[in-house]
Amino acid sequence: QVQLQESGGGSVQAGGFLRLSCAASGVTYSAYVLGWFRQVPGKEREGVATIDSFGNTQYADSVKGRFTISQDNAKNTLYLQMNSLKPEDTAMYYCAAGRFANYARLSLPRNFGFWGQGTQVTVSS
What is the distance, to the nearest Å, from the Cα of residue 114 to the centroid of all Cα atoms in its chain? Predict the structure, then answer.
């Protein structure tokens, strides 16, 4: 059973930084994709960044150059380093896991089978 638990959210001023963590357990399949998604009330969940078991990363255009996704396999933890935060980055951030073969991709959140509870990020101007 895959379990995901996010932490590290909070409130910061514009220009600040946060690092989100996602403790993952039970991800045993060889070809996987881990990702960060975000959602604000009334809008669809959108992809922020993904990393797969081959080491490939993808980013939403809105966060390129500011956010970095990484994983520590020894600690079974996924990270999202968020720098130069903007008010429009305010959202609930979710960690997700999916199978590469099931087309779990940045633009296809519905193909991720496992989700964490989310952590709130609030950026004030």
Answer: 12
Q: Would you say residue 29 has pLDDT above 80?
A: no
Q: How far apart are CA 57 and CA 53, in angstroms?
A: 10
- Which of the pair, 52 or 29, is modelled with greater confidence? 52
Helix, strand or coil for residue 90? coil
Which residue has 């199978």 as its token pair? Answer: 99
**pLDDT tens digits along 60-97:** 999 999 999 999 988 899 999 999 999 999 999 999 99
Report residue 2 as tokens.
Answer: 């895959």
**SS3 state of residue 23:** strand
How far is it, in rounded angstroms, from Cα 125 to Cα 120? 16
- Going by C-beta distance under 8 Å and a sequence separation of 6 or more, which residues neighbour residue 29? 99
Inter-residue contact 13 to 124 (CB < 8 Å): yes
- Contact between 75 and 121 (Cβ < 8 Å): no
| DSSP code at position 88 | G
